[in-house]
Specification:
By secondary structure, the chain is an alpha/beta fold. It has a single domain, classed as 3-Layer(aba) Sandwich (Rossmann fold). The chain is 30% helix and 18% strand. The site of magnesium ion (MG) has 5 residues, from helix 1.
Length: 179
């Protein structure tokens, strides 16, 4: 999961709370900026998804590509309310999706913070991020309107991601749990 202070850790906590049985989440308003990496697991459809929730601050973005070769899907979280930083996010996004190591890997774009009234619509976010087929390349991609804070769109995001990973398992086979 990538991006910059846009709700990745909140999104992961919300996913664990909604999907993992017996998970007692941390209060979402207590989450602070991720320094380095936050690891999470989601158990669904007989699979365990291992999440690498990576810090989005500019100096931490250089660490992202260490994780590409073992990624079966990418969830890219955008703060739909932060029009000022949207351009920075788009630059980081383009750099990520054009990285050869991630080629063909399914991509989910999460237009987060839709609970904020001034947020750009999913339609606008898609126009910006999915502007160029050439950059997106040959991969499955999809977008969801979400609020990590109130939980809207989170289940749909995980469901799409699981299905996409299963559809693409021939290209990137799953790892066994002991690997
Ligand atoms: N209103 C609103 N606020 C949100 C939402 N998701 C996250 N936030 C807030 O946005 C801020 C950043 O959220 P984080 O989950 O820490 O963001 P991050 O992407 O993990 O940030 P880094 O770890 O620095 O990369 C926090 O204050 C969250 O409470 C949302 O859907 N709506
Ligand atoms: Mg974080």
């Amino acid at each position: 999961m990538f991006s910059l202070l846009y709700g990745k850790t909140t999104f992961l906590e919300q996913s664990k709370t909604q999907i993992n049985q017996h998970y007692r989440g941390v209060p979402l308003n207590k989450i602070t900026a991720t320094v380095g990496l936050n690891i999470g697991h989601i158990h669904t459809n007989g699979l365990t998804l291992n999440f690498w929730d990576l810090g989005g601050q500019t100096e931490l973005q250089t660490l992202w590509d260490k994780y590409y070769s073992e990624s079966h899907a990418v969830i890219y979280v955008v703060d739909s309310s932060d029009t000022e930083r949207l351009e920075d996010s788009k630059v980081a996004f383009d750099k990520m999706i054009t990285n050869e190591t991630l080629s063909g890997v399914p991509l989910l774009l999460v237009a987060n913070k839709q609970d904020i009234p001034e947020s750009l619509s999913l339609h606008r976010i898609k126009d910006i991020f999915f502007m160029s087929d050439e950059l997106i390349g040959r991969r499955e991609y999809y977008s969801v309107s979400a609020s990590a804070l109130n939980g809207n769109g989170v289940k749909e995001s995980i469901e799409w991601t699981v299905a996409a990973i299963q559809r693409n398992a021939v290209n990137r086979p799953p790892l066994n749990s002991d690997e």
